[in-house]
Each structure stands twice: as structure tokens, then as C-alpha cells.
Design brief:
Length: 704
């Protein structure tokens, strides 16, 4: 019996001591940043604790939070949410309200905005006016707007160089722009085993090239003496000469939480020499990383959580002091760039703007990519602008590098990444060409009739060339207008566009039987346009028959040009004649005026001649037209007008659909004299008109 009691006692003692041991191991892994290991150990410790009292419940809730945080850092979002929620259920928020903030962030990354908002509001009830959470709440509203207003970029995962592990932080590593260096956890000969932080392999710097066919070569380790090591080398940067390389190196040792460091190496031959650590004057326990040198390497921007910043990890810069061979005390880039959250992965745009990732500024999901414009002064940048969708997503998006104005690369763990774990991949983006098309509408002068069968020629003018270069050939396209007088250019049979970016174009109409030839051309340009556009050009041809001019009115029995405010301005109508004469400098035009049928025929003939002369007087005296180009003629009441009757209404121009052509003789008009006074006067007004007839097209100023 004694032996039995002794065994039971020892077993109970073992259980008593097993719980603190499991908690100790979990806590040690968590504090040293070994989150992949910590996740497993905290779950194990959590399951072995019996919630017998308030102290045990508090410990259990703390372990649940640490498990959630560890899964979060190890890229297991679903398990992270599950364990954060367990911590909330155990009232961990009473000692650590940030459990609400973190689970809210994860719901935001998952695109579950309602749940994110609910948890953010719970956090604000405990920590009122927290700026980071207020920004996060505002982001939920803006995210909907950004998703509804996608930019023109298209994005894709570069599956040929991505693995099921982590592939991230690409940079351009050659002058030609065809080589990309990046961090990856794929297997290599320099490191083995699993990183206790992520559970994946250790990061090394890799490099891949795009060959002449546009295909990726097999990635290889970045060439350098000891540049890749048994530790994590995650991000890489190069100066503008591609002569100095900077990397982030994060040592990993058992039971130690070691800060990340920045190292650099100089070019030696075709490779790089042994790297040396960049000493930035901060404590060894403080992490510095994500280096970004300026063009000549005299300034280094980096990310760090050193004291004195705006929040979590901020962007700082330090200047290289050549005489002392040292780096100056780091300077924070300030609240214009930094936020209460984290600012990471800085790069420069081609124009010198600062590109970086942040989870503290207003964005869509976790990390978003922002652009801060370069300002006057050393390392001065303006208010950051979110780059919108699809560059950014609900997931984490960071480290964008431009290849040229149209395309580049970035990192994202959004849906569509390779593998099943939702780990970061290298993605590319492309700004598709702006889409332009052209419609040309050809009408007779006066716009009354469309011209069917007109041949229109589009000329693409040669681009400007640098001195010593040969200009390109002029490109032109021809087409014929349809029955509606229209022709439309968008895509060629091979899918290419007729109208392209950054080009000047000229449009002209070729001679057509029954029309006077014209030297008039229209020009348009796509140079500098950053948006799609439908170009519509209206061009006119001069028929070899009377031209219907815009309405010129006269009062009954009067030759004075009629101007009634809000109704008719005959002078404005004659401005059309002036513009036509300007467009066709060789034109000599006869202006033929008419009257209605009321009064004597001889009097009407004289009145019509005076009306024609009134038009000419305006054009000569007020517009400066050479009188030799204008001939007055009066036809009185002898040529009634043809109008068009449709559904009981009269139209001066042919309407669409079925209609009846009506000659406005005195007999026809008189039928309305007593029954419809308004129509009676309107039809008489139609007859009081002025028309144009082209006499010839070879006028020259020498005839004066």
C-alpha cells in the first residue's frame, strides 16, 4: 500500500511540475521570437492547464493570446484568429486590450470588414481615441471605395520563380533591368533545417534573369562571398551604380532574441566581396533592416523600432561620413511618412519618390504600398498616397520596385499566390496601354447630309527623333464611310490598335466625285494622355450644288438681319459662312436670298437682292472678307423651299425614319391661313432664307 501511495504521489508531483515547465518553454520561445516553435509550445501548454481558479484562467488566456500572436507571425492566419478569439473568450482583453486590435487586423486581411469593425470598436471602448485604430476604422470605409475604383494596372503572380515557401522583396539587380534579386526560403546549400520563426527554410538572396524570349531563367543564389549564410538574409538593395549591395541579416540562436542587422558588400569583379556590418549607432538589441541607399550610397534609409519614432517600426535615414568612415545618428523621416503602425520595405520610384509599405496609414488590408512624393530638401517626402487596387489588396502587399513607367514587381500573399499556405510571393504589375479609338463623321458643308463612300485617310506622323537618329516611316490607314457618313477605327485584324500611345495623327478626306476637293486636315495627338479616350472628328465636304446655310432670318418685308434674343441671331449664322470661307481660301461664294410668296413678285425679287447684300455687308464690313469672294443674288419667291413632314411636324433637315418631302408653294401654305396661324407663319419663314452656291474654288489674293 505504501508503494502504491508513493507512486501516486510522484505522479501528482510530476503533473504539478509539468505545467510550469511547459509554460516556461512556450514563454522562452515566444520571447526569443521563435514564433513557429512558440505556436506549438503555447498550444501544448494551454491544453495542459486546468482552469481551476482565476490565476489559472489568466494564464490560460495569456497563452491563448501568445498562440494567436505566434500563429500570426508564422503566417497561419486562420489559426491566429481562432486563438485570438479564445483569448477574448477568456477575457484576456482585461489585461491586454490589443487582442481586439490584432484580431480586427486579421479579419481585415481576410476581407471580413464587419467582424474587423466590431473588434476595432471593442478596442476603442477600452482604449479611446487610439489613432492607429481610428485609421483602421477609416480604412474599412475607404477600402470599399478603392475596390470600386480600380486603377488600370493588371497584376499576376510570377509562378515560374515562386515556390511554396516565402519569396519576397524583389529588386532590379542589373543595369539592363532584366535581372531580379529577391529573398526566398527555398532549399539551398548555405542553410538547412527550418526557421523557428516561420517554420519554413531560412531566407537567402536569390537571383533570376529574364531571357530574350521573355522567360525566367532558373533562379540561382546571389553571387557574393559569404553574402548568404546559415542565418536569414531577407531583403536586398543596391546603390545606383550597382557597385554596393546592402542586405538585412537576422541571426538566430537558441534561447536568444537577436536583432536584425544591415550588412553591405562591395563589388569585386563579377561578384561581391565579404560583407561588413553597417553600424548605425543603435543598441544591438534593436532591429534595423530593409535598407535603401540613395543613388551614390551617401544616405541610407532603413526601418527600425528604435525609440523616438511615431509608432511601431518607422523609416529612418543616416548619412555616411566618409572621413570618419561611419554613419551619422539616424534621423526619423517624420509624421509625413511614418504612422503609429509599421513602415517597412522602402524603395525609390524612377522619379525619386519614396515607395514603402505601411499598416498604419489608411489602406485596404494588412500592409499596403504607398507613394510619398519627393520634396525640396534632404530626405523630405510629402503625404503618402495609397496606390490603390489591384496593386494593394486585403492581404499584405509590400516592396514595390519599378522596372520602367509601365511595369515592375512587388510582394503579396493575396489569393493566387503559389502553394496552399498563403505565403508571400513575387508578383508583377503592368500598366496596359491606354485604349484609343477614332470615329470620323463626314457631312456635307452645312451638316444637313452625311456623305456615304468618302475615303478618309489617317496619317500617323513620325515620332520626334534624337540628333543623329533616322526618323521612322509615316504610317497611314484608309477607310470608307458607311451610309451614315461614319468610319470607326479601333482594332486591326491582328488585335493591335490603329491609334496608339504617344503619337501625333493627321486626318484628311480624299477627293470624291460630286464634291469639291479640300486641303483641310484635322490633327489630334495621344502624346501625354494618361487615360483612355474616344476621339470623334467631324469633317465636311463641299458639294457641287447649293449649300444649305444655317438659318438667316428677316422680318416680313425687311432686309435687315434679324436678331431676337434667345431665339435667333442671324449674324451668328453668317459666322458659319465666314468660317467656311476661312476653311476654303479658294472659294468664291454666291449668296442667294429668297422671300415668301406674299406681295408682288417684282418687289420680292428686289427684296431678296437686298437681303443677300445685307449678308455680304456683314461679312465684308464686320468680318473682313474680301468682297471679291462674295456675289449677291435675289430669287424672290420663285424657288420655294423643300421641307420634311413627319408626324405632323415640319423639319428643315431630313429626320430619321419615314417622312414626306413638301414644297412650300403659296398654295400649300395658304391651307393653314385661317386654320393654323402658327404653322402658316412658320412655313412662310422657312421660305425667307439665304443659301450658298460655290462659283469656283480657285480664288487667290492676287486677284485683288
Amino acid at each position: 500500500m505504501k508503494n502504491c501511495l508513493l507512486l501516486i504521489s510522484l505522479f501528482i508531483s510530476a503533473l504539478v511540475f509539468a505545467q510550469p515547465a511547459a509554460v516556461y518553454k512556450a514563454d522562452a520561445a515566444f520571447k526569443s521570437g521563435k514564433y513557429y516553435e512558440a505556436a506549438k509550445l503555447t498550444v501544448k501548454a494551454y491544453e495542459r492547464i486546468s482552469p481551476k481558479n482565476a490565476k489559472a484562467l489568466a494564464l490560460k488566456s495569456e497563452l491563448a493570446y501568445k498562440a494567436g500572436y505566434s500563429f500570426d507571425m508564422a503566417y497561419d492566419l486562420d489559426k491566429s484568429v481562432d486563438w485570438y478569439q479564445r483569448a477574448i473568450d477568456l477575457k484576456h482583453y482585461e489585461q491586454n486590450p490589443y487582442v481586439y486590435f490584432r484580431i480586427g487586423n486579421n479579419y481585415k486581411v481576410k476581407g471580413e470588414y464587419d467582424k474587423a469593425r466590431e473588434n476595432y470598436e471593442e478596442f476603442l471602448a477600452l482604449v479611446p481615441n487610439d489613432k492607429q485604430v481610428l485609421n483602421a476604422l477609416e480604412s474599412l470605409e475607404d477600402a470599399v471605395v478603392m475596390k470600386d475604383n480600380r486603377t488600370r494596372y493588371t497584376v499576376k503572380s510570377e509562378l515560374k520563380i515562386n515556390t511554396e515557401g516565402l519569396d519576397m522583396a524583389p529588386i532590379i539587380s542589373s543595369r539592363r533591368g532584366n535581372v531580379v534579386a529577391f529573398g526566398s526560403t527555398r532549399p539551398s546549400e548555405t542553410s538547412s533545417g527550418k526557421d523557428p520563426i516561420t517554420g519554413e527554410g531560412f531566407f537567402n538572396i536569390w537571383e533570376a534573369e529574364i531571357d530574350r524570349s521573355g522567360n525566367w531563367t532558373e533562379p540561382k543564389l546571389f553571387e557574393g562571398d559569404s553574402l548568404n549564410s546559415e542565418f536569414n538574409e531577407g531583403t536586398i538593395a543596391m546603390d545606383g551604380r550597382f557597385r554596393t549591395v546592402y542586405i538585412t541579416r537576422c541571426p538566430s540562436e537558441f534561447k536568444k532574441h537577436l536583432a536584425c542587422q544591415i550588412w553591405k558588400a562591395e563589388k569585386k569583379g563579377r561578384s561581391f566581396g565579404v560583407p561588413t556590418r553597417v553600424i548605425l549607432g543603435v543598441a544591438d538589441s534593436i532591429s534595423v533592416g530593409h535598407p535603401l541607399p540613395n543613388e551614390d550610397g551617401s544616405i541610407l534609409i532603413f526601418s527600425s523600432d528604435m525609440p523616438g519614432g511615431e509608432g511601431g517600426k518607422d523609416l529612418w535615414y543616416s548619412e555616411y561620413q566618409r572621413r570618419e568612415d561611419s554613419w551619422s545618428t539616424p534621423v526619423n523621416l517624420g509624421p509625413e511618412v511614418n504612422s503609429p503602425g509599421d513602415e517597412l520595405f522602402p524603395t525609390f520610384s524612377l522619379e525619386g519618390d519614396l515607395l514603402f509599405a505601411s499598416n498604419g496609414h489608411i489602406g485596404l488590408g494588412g500592409l499596403d504600398i504607398f507613394q510619398s512624393p519627393k520634396l525640396e530638401g534632404k530626405m523630405k517626402f510629402g503625404e503618402p498616397e495609397n496606390m490603390g487596387t489591384p496593386i494593394n489588396s486585403d492581404a499584405n502587399d509590400y516592396q514595390l520596385v519599378e522596372v520602367d513607367e509601365k511595369n515592375g514587381y512587388f510582394t503579396s500573399n493575396r489569393k493566387g499566390s503559389k502553394g496552399t499556405k498563403g505565403l508571400p510571393d513575387i508578383w508583377s504589375y503592368l500598366l496596359p496601354p491606354n485604349v484609343f479609338d477614332l470615329k470620323v463623321i463626314v457631312t456635307e458643308v452645312g451638316g444637313a447630309e452625311r456623305v456615304d463612300g468618302a475615303t478618309v485617310q489617317i496619317i500617323e506622323l513620325p515620332s520626334e527623333v534624337e540628333e543623329g537618329e533616322e526618323p521612322g516611316d509615316t504610317v497611314f490607314y484608309e477607310g470608307t464611310t458607311n451610309e451614315y457618313g461614319e468610319i470607326f477605327w479601333d482594332r486591326k485584324p491582328d488585335g493591335d490598335r490603329f491609334i496608339n500611345e504617344d503619337k501625333d495623327y493627321m486626318v484628311k478626306i480624299l477627293p470624291l466625285e460630286g464634291f469639291h476637293p479640300s486641303d483641310v486636315v484635322e490633327e489630334f495627338s495621344t502624346i501625354g494622355l494618361s487615360y483612355d479616350q474616344n476621339f470623334i472628328l467631324e469633317m465636311s465636304m463641299l458639294p457641287k450644288r447649293p449649300i444649305v446655310l444655317p438659318e438667316v432670318r428677316y422680318a416680313l418685308g425687311s432686309a435687315k438681319l434679324q436678331v431676337i434674343e434667345g431665339e435667333i441671331n442671324s449674324k451668328d449664322s453668317l459666322n458659319y459662312v465666314y468660317e467656311m470661307l476661312e476653311e476654303y481660301p479658294g472659294m468664291v461664294l454666291k449668296l442667294v436670298s429668297h422671300t415668301d410668296a406674299r406681295g408682288r413678285a417684282s418687289s420680292n425679287a428686289s427684296l431678296a437682292k437686298r437681303r443677300a447684300q445685307s449678308c455680304i455687308n456683314y461679312l465684308v464690313n464686320e468680318k473682313g472678307v474680301d468682297p471679291e469672294r462674295l456675289i449677291p443674288e435675289g430669287k424672290g419667291e420663285s424657288a420655294p423651299r423643300i421641307v420634311f413632314l413627319q408626324d405632323g411636324k415640319y423639319y428643315a433637315k431630313k429626320p430619321e425614319g419615314e417622312f414626306e418631302a413638301v414644297e412650300l408653294t403659296e398654295t400649300y401654305i395658304n391651307q393653314f391661313k385661317t386654320s393654323d396661324k402658327e404653322t402658316f407663319e412658320k412655313l412662310h419663314q422657312y421660305n425667307r432664307r439665304t443659301e450658298g452656291e460655290v462659283v469656283r474654288m480657285d480664288y487667290t489674293a492676287s486677284e485683288e
